[in-house]
Amino acid sequence: MDSDTSRVSSRPSSPEADDIFLSMKKSVGFSGAVSSTQSDSPPDLCGDLRGMSSADEDSISLKMQYKKDRKLLSENELQAMRLKINSRERKRMHDLNIAMDGLREVMPYAHGPSVRKLSKIATLLLARNYILMLSNSLEEMKRLVSEIYGGGATGGHHAGFHPSACGSLTHTAGPLPTHPAVSHASHPVHHPLLPPAVSTAASLSASGISAVASVRPHHGLLKAPTATAGPLGSVPAFQHWGAGMPCPCSMCQVPPPHVSSMTTTSMARLASDSK
DNA sequence: TAGGCCATCTGGTCCT
DNA sequence: AGGACCAGATGGCCTA
Question: Strand C contacts (CB < 7 A) among A residues 116-135?
Answer without folding.
Answer: none
